[in-house]
Structure formats: structure tokens, C-alpha cells
């Protein structure tokens, strides 16, 4: 559904355009650059490949690319660990789907696809985490299940129709939902970077394609962020929330993959021990005013 050859080409161009010669240890040259970024010949030089070969890779005309060349490109473009995985995933998808890669200019046309379901055992686990906000997310960052304290932490979650239970959709199309997050712009960038990483892992996944396609049509901000080709998993970190009852909360989060349920992960929030956020979250979990 997401065409890996086209995505690889766009990703390489985006990364090349984000770097300066100084950042990779090259002289700026005597000729003024018309646009910011590295030239193709500079990337080829840094990676130790010919300009012609790099050009064919960037234009999606190279066919299979060896691991050695991919590693060299990753070093040349100063890729993060997440970006390196994305690069290898895209290249592997091209190798496995060379016949489809020839149709790289076709638009993504996702079929109607149902949301994933959550096993009863996972729902029981969520209920057992009485004082800890937790939720199960699925493909395309659908919000599939959550426990009561998570419902209190994200007000209105219990009342949303199933079609709207999607984190990117809420952040980009529901101002009230986005306003809960003190760092909404950072979270939007994080979510888009996660979706981009997911398309590298599984470009054929129809639910993921449907979410991305819908948001490209409905949100100019999503389109803008999507075109940056940022890739980041963000398996842990911290979120700041402005809760209407509990006030400001800073919560650490962990995203725990669920190996028995492909495409799903468990999001768990926890405050810093002894912090005001811990006290406020405890009151919220107990249903008491802060």
C-alpha cells in the first residue's frame, strides 16, 4: 500500500537536504549552493560509491541494495538507529516486492479494514492496573482498550465512537483532545514519526495505510509533517498534560510491544516518585478532586 521504492527515494532526498557539508566534515565549496543540503556527489563520496550508483538508488532504479551499501549510506547521512532500521526495512521491502515497486507512482488506495481486537487476557491485565494509566494501541495507532484511570486521564475517551478512537486523528482533527497535551506539537511530530517508521516495517498493512491516507486528506499540518520524513520510534519518554481536574501532570511513558499480538503495544504511564504529579494522579485514580 505504501510503495517502498518511492519512500526510499523521498527519504534519502529528505535526509540529504537536511544536512550541511560542515555537519559531515566536508568543505562548503567555492560555488554558492542554491538550496540547503548535500549534493548527490557529496553523499556518494562519503558513502564510497559512484555518483551514478547513488543517483540510481535515490531515484529508485537500483534494484536490490546490499547491506554494506546501506550501512555506508546510513553513516554518510548521519542516520539515527531508528532511521537506520527504516532504511533497511524499505530496502528489504523493495527486494521482496520488486514487481510491485515498478508501480511506485500509484497512490495508496486502502480497502475498508476493521480495527484490531484485544484479547480478553489483555483486558483483564488493564483492569488489574488499578492506579496506573494504561492502554493498548493497534495498527495505525488505533486506541483499542484502556483501563478506568486512563479514561480519567484522557477525559472523553470513554464517550468517543469507535471510528474516532485513533490517536493521530484526535491530535490532528480534534482541538479539544489535543489541548489536553501541553506539548501537543511535539506529540504530533512524535506520532507522525512513529507512523513513518511503521510504514517501513509493513508497507502492505491496510489499516496503517488507511489512517495515513485519511489524515493526508483532512489535515494540512499532518501533510506538512509527513513530508519531513522524520522517523522515530520513541519507545519511552515523558508527556506533559494539562488536565481539567488534576492540573498539570508530567508522566513518564513506556511502550511495550505485545509479541503475541502483532502490531499492538501497551502504553503505560507513571509519575516520578514523590512528585506533585504522583499525588495528583493518585487523587485522579481515586476519583477525588486534586
From TrEMBL:
Instruction: Name the SMART domains for this protein.
Output: HTH_XRE (SM00530)
Domain HTH cro/C1-type, residue spans: 33-84
Q: Which Pfam families match?
A: HTH_31, MLTR_LBD
Q: Which InterPro entries match?
A: Cro/C1-type_HTH, Lambda_DNA-bd_dom_sf, MLTR_LBD
Q: Where is this region: Disordered?
A: 98-119
Please name the GO terms that the record assigns under molecular function.
DNA binding
Query: Taxonomically, which superkingdom?
Result: Bacteria
- Please give the name of this protein: Transcriptional regulator with XRE-family HTH domain
Q: Which organism is it from?
A: Nocardiopsis composta
Q: Which lineage ranks, top first, belong to the organism behind this chain?
A: Bacteria, Bacillati, Actinomycetota, Actinomycetes, Streptosporangiales
Amino acid at each position: 500500500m505504501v510503495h517502498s521504492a518511492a519512500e526510499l527515494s523521498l527519504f534519502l532526498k529528505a535526509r540529504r537536504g537536511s544536512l550541511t557539508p560542515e555537519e559531515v566534515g566536508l568543505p562548503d565549496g567555492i560555488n554558492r549552493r542554491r538550496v540547503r543540503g548535500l549534493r548527490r556527489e557529496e553523499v556518494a563520496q562519503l558513502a564510497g560509491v559512484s555518483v551514478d550508483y547513488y543517483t540510481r538508488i535515490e531515484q529508485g532504479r537500483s534494484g536490490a541494495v546490499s547491506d554494506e551499501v546501506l550501512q555506508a549510506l546510513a553513516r554518510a547521512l548521519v542516520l539515527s538507529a531508528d532511521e537506520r532500521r527504516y532504511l533497511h526495512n524499505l530496502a528489504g521491502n523493495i527486494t521482496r516486492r520488486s514487481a510491485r515497486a515498478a508501480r511506485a507512482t500509484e497512490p495508496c488506495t486502502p480497502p475498508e479494514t476493521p480495527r484490531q481486537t484485544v484479547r480478553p487476557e489483555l483486558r483483564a491485565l488493564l483492569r488489574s492496573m488499578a492506579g496506573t494509566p494504561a492502554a493498548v494501541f493497534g495498527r495505525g495507532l488505533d486506541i483499542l482498550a484502556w483501563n478506568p484511570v486512563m479514561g480519567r486521564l484522557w477525559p472523553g475517551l470513554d464517550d468517543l465512537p469507535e471510528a474516532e478512537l485513533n490517536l493521530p486523528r484526535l491530535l490532528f482533527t480534534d482541538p479539544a483532545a489535543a489541548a489536553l497535551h501541553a506539548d501537543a506539537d511535539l506529540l504530533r511530530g512524535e506520532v507522525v514519526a512513529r507512523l513513518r517508521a511503521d510504514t517501513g516495517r509493513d508497507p502492505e498493512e491496510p489499516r496503517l495505510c488507511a489512517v495515513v491516507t485519511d489524515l493526508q486528506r483532512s489535515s494540512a499540518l499532518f501533510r506538512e509533517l509527513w513530508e519531513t520524513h522524520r522517523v522515530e520510534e520513541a519507545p519511552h519518554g515523558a508527556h506533559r498534560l494539562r488536565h481539567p481536574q488534576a492540573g498539570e501532570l508530567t508522566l513518564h511513558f513506556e511502550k511495550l510491544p505485545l509479541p503475541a499480538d502483532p502490531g499492538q503495544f501497551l502504553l503505560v504511564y507513571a509519575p516520578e516518585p514523590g512528585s506533585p504529579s504522583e499525588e495528583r494522579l493518585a487523587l485522579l485514580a481515586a476519583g477525588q478532586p486534586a
